[in-house]
Structure formats: C-alpha cells, structure tokens
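Tokens in:
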C-alpha cells in the first residue's frame, strides 16, 4: 500500500505541476542547476525520504574517497556520522553558498592539517587556490577546499631549485623561511669545527642568480682542501693538504708532527726518521715561503749531510749499505760482504744465514768453526757416539742441502745390524726412523724383529707351531708382504690342483672384511668340504643323505667332471652315445625358450630323445 501511495503522490504532484506550474521549494544553487526540474528529483531524493548520503557520494566521488581513506575534514569520524545536508542544504536560490564556513571559528586541525606558525595568520584564499591543486578536475572548480597537498612545494616555490631535498621541514619550521633552525651542519658532508663554526653562512654560501632568480649555493661547494676557499700562503712549495699541518682552531697552530706525509717530498721518512721532530732537521721560521725549504735537494741516502761519520770514512759514505734507518745499530743482511776473504768462506746453506746468527757480538769477534757442533746443537743427542766422541755432522750432511738431507747410503746401511733387503730398500727413511710419539728422528734401539715395526695381525689366529716366536719370516719375505711362502703340506689339508694358485686370503679372510684383515681372518678349524667355499650349483641333485660330495665327480685341477662314471648310472653310455657332448642330452629348452641343465633324466626310451 505504501508503494501505491508513493506513486499516487508523485502523480498528484506532476498533475499540479502541469496545471499550476512548478511547486519546488526553491531554486537549486548554480552548482546543481543542471538537476533542476521535477523529473530530476529522484537523482538526489528517495521517494518519501530525505536526501541520502549515498546519492550525494555517488556524484561526489572525491568526497567518497576521502571518507574511505579517513583523510581531510570529511574523513573525520564525527563528520562521517553526519548527513551531508546538515552542512550542505539546497533549494535556497542560485547564489546560495552551500560551502559557507565561519573562517574565524573553523578548526583547521579537523582537516588533518594543523596550521602552525606563520600559517595561522594566512588568509584561507591564499592557500586554497587552483594554482596549488594538482588534480585537473578539482582545479576547474570555483571556491573548492579540496585537492591541496601537505608538502611545502605544492604551495611554495622551490627556492633551492632542486639542489636540496624536497622535504623542507627537515631544515625549516613554520615560523619563517629564514633562518633554518632544524638544519644540522654536522649531518652535511662538511662538518663545522674550530673557527669554521663561528663564520657567517654567507661567507661560504654565496648569493647568486640562477634561472633568473636569486639563489644561494648550498651544494657542490668544493672542500677537498683548504685552498678551495683559502689562499695558499706557501705558494704550492709544500705538497699535500693543509690539514696535515694546520688545524681549524687556528691556522698558526702547527700539528704536522706524525701528520704530514713526508713521502710526498723527495725524502721518504723511514725508521727512526719518522719519530724525529720536524725542527730537529728544519730551521724554525714563521715565514710561510721559507718554512721547511732549507733541506731541499738533499739525497735521502746521503746520511753524512746530516749525521757525523763515526767510521771516519773507512767504509765510504754509503752508510745504507750496512745500516738501517730503524736504528744505527740495526744492520742489514750484509749480503754485499765478501766472506771469501776470511778464514771461513761461506758455502751452501751458510750463504743464506743472517750474519747475526753467527756473529752474536761484534763482527770482528773470532768464531771457532772447527766443528759443526760449535755452532749447531747435536740433534741426535749422542746416538752416534763412539768411545765418547760424536762424529762431525759432515759425515752425513752437506752444506748444499742442509740437515734435511742425508749422505748416508744403502751400502753403509748394509754394514749395520739391520741390512736393508727387498721392499725395505724402497721404504723412505722416516717410515722407520721418525718416532710417532714425538715426531723425532731416532736411529738406536729400534729392534730388528718384524713385530718391532709391523703389527702382527695374525696374533691369536694362527697356531704358534706355524710361526714360532712371532717370526713373520716363517711365511713372509722382505720382497713384498703379500708374497707368502708357506708349506701347506704341514697342515691337515695339503693344496693340490687349482688350489695351489689361489691367494691365501681368498680362503682365510672374510670377503667383507678384506680391508680389515684383523677382524675377518680364519686359519684354524676351516671346513674342507667343497661347498664351504664354492657354490653348489647342483643343489641336492647329487646329494646322498643330504650331503653333496663334489669329489665323486670333480678334481681340484678342473671343474670338469673327470671322475664321473656314466656307467654307474641307469643309462650307461654305449656306441654313439659315448661320443656325443653332454649338453646334447642334458641341456633342454623350457616353455620360455630358456636353456636349463637337467642332470637326472627320467625317461630313457629312444623316442624320448630321437624323432621318428
């Protein structure tokens, strides 16, 4: 019924309109003039209801966007709760101001942008102008308060013309453009210190004209060295940067000690020269053009130009041949010295030795060089003493190859209690003579039995009767450990046929532990039946009482059944049968076409094998 009443009322209104003219409560404002007329009412009104916010925001999408983002005045919670018509009413005539604000009472903070400092005194129309609006649609509207940006450069000209960061509030506040109270020169590439901190900014940051506008330079100002701004009083006679000698506190304060890079000059400071006070060599003067200029063109190797020659010229004036700048007492390697003019010419490894290794005191002090042990410690600790006297090192060592090399020969070793034979000849000396406990070479009391050096892997596995007193030579030789010379006839199982060609470990070591023989060896109580070592390919075909005795058919020299007697079977071979191959009868193709070996044939009639 309500729906019929609504349309009845609308029909009645249209009838009155046609009969008596427009009955609108008043003209719409200029902004909404295109919506004038009874046929357009429903674009803003719902029948029987007031104007809804939904219809307003369907047209005013920029306001809907602010509401969604909760930005600006319309994005405030208390404003969102109100109906649009509470602030923006209509039908009051073409010239009615729908956006009327009490500028004096309006709280600008409700827009999300608080007016502070100088902004508090600025007239609204100074900021809310089309020139400051970036959006082209909003820019066309008259008296709009929308579209402004909070960034400074959206309203203000960039005085710095893009030479500085665009975030003005990093340096400026809202009170005034000058000065810039937030700017911290310590955050710049050039920090102010000393006298620089009292200099007026304009002294360094000059005023100029750029792009036709007044401009003050704050970037791209050279400061790599003081002469970028200051005149050089030394007229480029002193190399390097001013800060090596001067401070920003006072130009007259000298700080060049340990600071000035003397390598920039023709005289490189080394050793003790680096610790010497500058004015120990240079005359003191306050004249900028003369300071440090009194030692020019002096060769850095001409020591006698500054130092007294304590040798009175006996060794020439080239002091650096023997002495170092670290200390006058610190001598060089003296490689230039010809030791051949002395009673002990240097040879071999001695040539490489630093002089001070032998000349502990003065170079002129005599040295007893009659024996090596006068200088060298006896590494062998008397091991080679005979009648209380150790032989000299030169009997085994040479100056050419040093102590790491020995002149001791194999022929000499044959004269010892342990002559080298077989594989021992090819064994490196250190394998026997270097102790694993202290990594030291030793040559005495080493033992001559195999077990003194080698681990007895058979201990507990082989009866002592086969190698009494752990004597490995009962089976092994020096030629190679794997070569075994053992008489197997001494055992209960003499080797015959192919068994004589098999390696011992093939039978006496577990295949899975061949690389760990201690764990997998077996010598006693080995089984002697063939199936213990060999695969029984016949299974139980020839078993008697569950045991297959291979020796009934085979011999150790070949797997061929040499001892098999076909006459003892149910089918003795006669005539042509005695001449044919075994496979002709015993190899049969199965249903899958595969060849099977059948040793026991159940049928012996001719027709079973021969075709009719």
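Residues out:
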């Amino acid at each position: 019924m309500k729906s019929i009443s609504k349309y009845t009322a609308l029909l009645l209104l249209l009838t009155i309109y046609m009969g008596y003219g427009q009955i609108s409560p008043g003209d719409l404002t200029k902004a909404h003039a295109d919506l004038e007329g009874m046929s357009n009412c429903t674009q803003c009104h719902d029948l029987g209801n007031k104007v809804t916010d939904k219809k307003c925001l369907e047209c005013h999408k920029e306001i809907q966007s602010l509401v969604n983002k909760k930005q600006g005045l319309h994005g405030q919670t208390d404003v969102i709760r109100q109906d649009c018509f509470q602030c923006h009413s209509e039908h009051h005539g073409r010239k009615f101001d729908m956006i009327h604000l009490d500028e004096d009472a309006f709280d600008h903070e409700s827009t999300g942008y608080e007016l502070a400092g100088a902004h508090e005194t600025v007239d609204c129309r100074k900021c809310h102008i089309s020139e400051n609006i970036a959006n082209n649609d909003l820019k066309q509207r008259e008296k709009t308060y929308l579209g402004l940006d909070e960034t400074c450069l959206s309203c203000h000209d960039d005085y710095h013309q893009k030479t500085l960061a665009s975030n003005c509030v990093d340096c400026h506040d809202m009170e005034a453009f000058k000065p810039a109270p937030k700017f911290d020169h310590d955050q710049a590439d050039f920090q102010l210190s000393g006298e620089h901190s009292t200099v007026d900014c304009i002294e360094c940051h000059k005023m100029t004209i750029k792009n036709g506008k007044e401009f003050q330079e704050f970037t791209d100002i050279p400061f790599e060295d003081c002469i970028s701004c200051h005149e050089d009083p030394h007229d480029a006679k002193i190399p390097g940067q001013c800060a090596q000698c001067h401070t920003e506190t006072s130009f007259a304060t000298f700080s060049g000690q340990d600071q000035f890079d003397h390598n920039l000059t023709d005289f490189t400071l080394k050793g003790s020269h680096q610790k010497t006070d500058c004015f120990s060599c240079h005359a003191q003067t306050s004249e900028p053009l003369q300071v440090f200029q009194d030692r020019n063109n002096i060769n850095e190797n001409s020591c006698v130009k500054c130092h007294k020659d304590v040798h009175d010229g006996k060794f020439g004036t080239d002091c650096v041949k023997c002495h170092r700048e670290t200390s006058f007492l610190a001598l060089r390697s003296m490689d230039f010295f010809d030791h051949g003019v002395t009673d002990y010419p240097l040879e071999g490894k001695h040539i490489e030795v630093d002089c001070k290794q032998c000349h502990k005191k003065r170079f002129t002090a005599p040295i007893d060089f009659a024996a090596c042990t006068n200088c060298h410690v006896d590494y062998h600790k008397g091991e080679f003493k005979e009648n209380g006297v150790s032989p000299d090192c030169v009997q085994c060592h040479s100056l050419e190859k040093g102590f790491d090399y020995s002149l001791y020969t194999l022929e000499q070793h044959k004269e010892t209690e342990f002559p080298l034979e077989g594989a021992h000849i090819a064994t490196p000396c250190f394998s026997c003579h270097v102790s694993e406990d202290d990594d030291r070479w030793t040559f005495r009391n080493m033992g001559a039995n195999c077990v003194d050096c080698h681990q007895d892997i058979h201990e507990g596995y082989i009866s002592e009767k086969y190698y009494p007193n752990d004597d490995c030579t009962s089976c092994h030789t020096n030629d190679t450990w794997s070569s075994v010379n053992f008489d197997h006839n001494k055992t209960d199982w003499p080797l015959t046929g192919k068994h004589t060609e098999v390696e011992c470990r093939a039978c006496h070591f577990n295949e899975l532990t061949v690389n760990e023989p201690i764990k997998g060896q077996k010598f006693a109580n080995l089984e002697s039946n063939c199936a213990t070592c060999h695969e029984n390919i016949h299974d139980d075909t020839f078993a008697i009482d569950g045991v297959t005795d291979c020796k009934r058919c085979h011999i150790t020299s070949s797997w061929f059944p040499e001892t098999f007697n076909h006459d003892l079977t149910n089918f003795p071979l006669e005539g042509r049968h005695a001449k044919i191959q075994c496979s002709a009868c015993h190899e049969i193709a199965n249903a899958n076409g595969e060849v099977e070996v059948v040793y026991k044939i159940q049928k012996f009639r001719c027709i079973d094998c021969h075709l009719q």
